[in-house]
């Protein structure tokens, strides 16, 4: 019997069996012990599954595909951008060659990010963007004759990716990379910043930051943090005042400052970039996820002219990094379209609308049994439990409400696409509540 003779259900089961046997999913075992959901198609804010989950084949995506699909799925403007570029060229090497989509993207990113970021390195993923950022900082100090400055300082509770240097600046205890203790570079950690976007800067914590940076300034290449929102390390929010403080301390002690805006860039926190909440600029900024509207993988590492020119004056006057698909024309074209689609609309009002909807929809969970905290910032809603979440039970409960969520650790959270309407937003909130109770 050939594939064409199989029923739709049989084809689905065959695909899922192959998936379990051969496809290694993120943060999962191999062979897989949990069956993934097979997605047939996606449009707007909805995923259509091959088989029902929680009694529903269509689920509202409360995750924006890991925070990337800010315009939803199958968007006509983004589809057109990809098709038009595909008719011209899908890819060309970036060594010795260049092309219009990448040039326009770099110029646009320089225009919309804080000054004095001037130079753009296009890479493949957020983790690689952080890898490049750290390499830039290390090579800068090598080039200007300060090779001892080769350590990074960060605060606990952070997450910056899964390649080696990014793993070294993720939370060393609560993160996912304890296995590599003793193998990764030995970085410096201070306690996580006090919680609360609207909280005042804590003088004792400010003093601790100042002491750590001053004491280690001679060996510090840079401080790297996720501004305002710590993502996969715990979905915590902190005051923009700590960004201002870090900028002052780094300037005072000759240390570079890196902002990892892979999760927060393009409006997610309520400002176009989280750095804008504080009105400060880092020496290096990492972007990814929503850069292409969730269509294709691409990231960007931006830096100041001072940093780039410092590297160029070194004995090795080039940044020795060059991904094969660097500056991919398809990804650059859809990134340009996604940025313009975002900026041509009143995205601030849409994010505030989502923020209001999440605050309203999640409010009743505060103080509920098993719930430790409920917090919302921009288009991010988080329910923190007082116990590890039962992912299978929580996922099933959310699906019964018609919502796709992906809880982790003790967190049930949502980052909806900006195009989510009020009715679907209410359903997402209901899904979060159901997942929190079941988990």
From TrEMBL:
Main location: cytoplasm
Feature type site, description Participates in the substrate recognition with KAPA and in a stacking interaction with the adenine ring of SAM: 27
InterPro entries membership: Aminotrans_3, Aminotrans_3_PPA_site, BioA, PyrdxlP-dep_Trfase, PyrdxlP-dep_Trfase_major, PyrdxlP-dep_Trfase_small
Pathway: Cofactor biosynthesis; biotin biosynthesis; 7,8-diaminononanoate from 8-amino-7-oxononanoate (SAM route): step 1/1
Binding site for pyridoxal 5'-phosphate: 126-127, 260, 323-324
UniProt-listed SUPFAM superfamilies: PLP-dependent transferases (SSF53383)
GO molecular function: adenosylmethionine-8-amino-7-oxononanoate transaminase activity; pyridoxal phosphate binding
Family designation: Belongs to the class-III pyridoxal-phosphate-dependent aminotransferase family. BioA subfamily.
NCBIfam families in the cross-refs: bioA, PRK05964.1
Subunit structure: Homodimer.
Protein name: Adenosylmethionine-8-amino-7-oxononanoate aminotransferase
Species assigned in the record: Kitasatospora viridis
